[in-house]
Amino acid sequence: MTGWDQSAGAGTPEHVVPGRVRIHTEPLAPLQPARATNGLQPRIARETVFEIRDMSVYYGDNQALGWTSFDIYRNLVTAVIGPSGCGKSTFIRSLNRMNDSIPSFRIKGEILYHGHDVYGAAVNRVEVRRRIGMVFQKPNPFPKSIYHNVAWAPRNLGMRDGLDDRVEHALAQAALWDEVKDRLRDSALSLSGGQQQRLCIARAIAIEPDVLLLDEPASALDPVSTASIEELMHTLKTRYTIVIVTHNMQQAARVADQVAFFSLDGIERVGTLIEYGDTNTIFRSPHDNRTRDYVTGQFG
Ligand code: ADP
């Protein structure tokens, strides 16, 4: 397929700042200590994976998300937070065209992935989902063996060479190999919830995507499994760009490098990006009072 060359960098990020949105144009490096992004830090060159430009989403006549513009950077974890109904799922599912199956779904504006329009007329949706994988809230393994869950997508895409190694590698990256290596032929449904979710992550990464979208991946899990998923994100981001929706602010603070805070704005209560920036700024010194109220637990 043309136009989906992963190596094509997007160049210098361009920051479009619509009226109501705070976009910090000086994001911190992941390991930098907490400091406000007040324009005093040196600019850090980062590769942009997604450029979201004036994106609005409608379901029929109802606008779910409005006028959203920001950039998502490579090898970082970007968390999307906000109160229920503000469009977090709508947003993340739009990044890999997962909403296309909803008849009333309409999108305006642009989502550029490495500079290419995700919704361009010539774009192959299968290829979009190969490069931009997704893991859902509820673990949803196929009712097949552990092995076949991970081998299924590579096999369907004709990636049959070295399949056993590929399966092992994906399970190892998902921190599950040691727990399942002696029972690969067992049903995936015999695994615990946390193991099933790591299996779904292994399934997603078995076809070597570029981006992992995680929609509330730990909200159905116990605290121990949640901790293992969070730990996994720290290792996976060295290889993948991760976007996670979470309603759990502590989780966002623990795992994310960048945070996008959405809320319901205006009389129409449209999901709106209120503030976007590095995690320390959003949680310690947000620029917008609505962000401050949300992260301090005063609403939502
Ligand atoms: P969040 O993930 O922040 O809870 P959602 O993206 O699920 O928010 O929902 C945003 C808005 O879009 C809500 O008003 C919701 O009712 C609406 N919505 C979500 N999915 C659909 C759909 N399939 N059909 C119609 N409206 C939808």
Distance between the termini: 43 Å
- Which structural class should the secondary elements be placed in? alpha/beta
Query: What sequence of helices (H) and strands (E) makes up the elements?
Result: EEEEHEEHEHHHHEHEHEEHH
CATH architecture of one domain: 3-Layer(aba) Sandwich
Which CATH first-tier class of one domain would you pick? Alpha Beta
Mean pLDDT: 87
The CATH topology assignment of one domain is Rossmann fold
Which small compounds were modeled alongside the protein?
adenosine-5'-diphosphate
**Count of helical regions:** 10
Largest sheet: 11 strands, mixed
Got a strand count?
11
| Spatial extent as radius of gyration | 19 Å
Strand content: 15-25%
Low-confidence stretches: 5-21, 25-42
User: So what's the overall shape?
Assistant: globular
Helix content: 25-40%
Q: CATH H level of one domain: which superfamily?
A: P-loop containing nucleotide triphosphate hydrolases
Outline of the structure:
The chain is built from ten helices and eleven strands. The chain is an alpha/beta fold and 300 residues long.
How is this fold's topology laid out?
Layout (H helix, E strand, L loop, with lengths): L21 E2 L24 E12 L2 E12 L3 E5 L6 H8 L9 E9 L2 E2 L7 H7 E4 L10 H11 L6 H11 L3 H4 L12 H13 L5 E5 L7 H14 L4 E5 L3 H7 L2 E8 L4 E9 H6 L4 H7 L5
Parallel strand pairs: 1-11, 3-11, 4-9, 4-10, 7-8, 8-9
Antiparallel strand pairs: 2-3, 2-5, 5-6, 10-11
Helix pairs in contact: 3-4, 3-6, 4-6, 6-7
The structure holds adenosine-5'-diphosphate.
